[in-house]
Queue: 2 jobs
Job 1
Amino acid sequence: MNATSRTRDSRLRQASARLAGARRAKAAGLGIRGFSVLVAIATGAIHLQAQTPSSPPKLPTELSNIRFNSGQSVVPYFEGWIRNSDGTFDLVFGYFNRNWEQEVVIPAGPDNTVELGGPDSGQPTYFLPRRQRFVFRVRVPKDFGKKEVVWSLTANGRTEHAFGSLIREQEITERVVMTNGGYDPGLTDPNKPPAVTLSPIQDAVAGRPVTLSVAVADDGLPKPRVTSASKPASSGSFGAQVNSSGSGPRPIGLAVNWMQYGGPSKVTFEAPGPLPVTDGHAVTTATFAEPGTYQLVVSATDRAMTTRVPVTLRVRAPSN
């Protein structure tokens, strides 16, 4: 007899002893109710001990605390719908690339399709890591009713779907998009989103830096923050949480950000992350790995509201 069997037999003997004690309690005049409670406890203990050895182990269905750099799916998201002045509606979608590093290319087609909108409905084909909100829209007619727009994505062997419909509780406004999810209607907020003007882009050649320059105008609201220099944590104590991303200080006023939306290959920006606007301009360079047609999105934010402008760029192969 092994140790597990001996332990089980010992526990069964203890439960049997409790049951015998319950019977003696009844004989001593404990009463029908007290006797029933003791019998239930003892019988339950016997049943539990008898079942435990044969119960299959319970394993977690998802290890959410594990960080996957690649190999995970890309999940489309339905963000909500916007009512247009002409009676039509815009269904707004975003996505969540569950990978922390892998940037996924999924051309429009069987692995990246929008039902009711057609296989190519202007959806993104280049997916950056993690959550990207309010990325693209599908316009539907005023008589759309209770139909659905389904966006399906297949990445790393797994297919995910997003279902867009005109459910009343999911109605949003342009302000929600411009504030990246803020639901304050802004009835008393005089702030206006920045205006963005893109300078003409020079001849774009694969493998060579291309200058990207935008002019940004704003109403000056909200006022730029005044921040003090951060104090390093004392080496002798735990201290407070410190941002160690290495990306440098975040802009405190107007800022511009470039994002890849589509294209045959990766676009490498000279300065990833927010670019501060200096004298009304923000300038960077981008290098396109391969020739082809690329879609970018440039956004300007005043920290409260954001303006997004799509940019399409054709990149040619270098001359021999």
Job 2
Amino acid sequence: MGRCRRHGGLVERRNPFMDSEEIQQGHLLPSGGGRPETVKSGAAVVSSPEVDPASPLNVDLALALLERRDLPPETLEQLGRDPAALKSRKVCVALAGHPRAPRQLALRLLRHFYTGDLMQFALRPSVAADLKHFAAEQLVTRLPSVTLGERLMLARRASETIAAALLLDKEPRVAHTALENSRLTEAAVIRALLRLKAGSAFVEAVCHHPKWSVRREVRLALLRSPHTPLARALEFARNLPPPLLRDVLHTSRLPEKIKTYLRENLKQRSQEAGACTSLSARRRPPK
């Protein structure tokens, strides 16, 4: 239903579902020739004073207009040049997320989004992949200046890209929260473990995590990390085939003492396996 404004007893009705020309005539968007002073309502001509650009009515009309999925890009461009409309955070979010919004307009608006709006925008399934990627990059760039509370919120709810970046956060609570993010992938955890800046707190958190510590590829990455404790390294090494463990230790950044201990343990396992094989061969009855 269209909204209306009263001017001296007369009612001016506005239909949010208008074409580009009607939008300009209805004072929603600026036009090159200035704003008209009168609009037609049915058969009558109603005087219309200048519309206050910051009025809530303008924002409501813009939001109602942006609900239309068939708006032409020209109309969206006009709305993107209206300073009054762009003062509204909701209008900017709806405009950037419109399926027919020009890419350059959406990118320009995204640079001014708040942290929470960027996160929600990057999670919307209807948003183009390149815009999601840009929104995630904007968030990663802002992380050093984002508050602890916002980083915790992002670690819990944001996309994989943001959660992966927060795995190496200086605050352990943020990294632990990011490990619980349902969108986080095994590949992201492995990349973080292999980074030179991965600290001991993060590595130990992964070592004891009930989900990630049981993954074989994650265990291989932990055996390459210099911060993996001896007890966990020994546990992970016992479940690996000897040839694979040798390859991992060859490129591992574990302390030399731990690598030496693991190699000795591996040698002992090989000797025990050889002894068991010989004993089984002796007990086997002749044919």
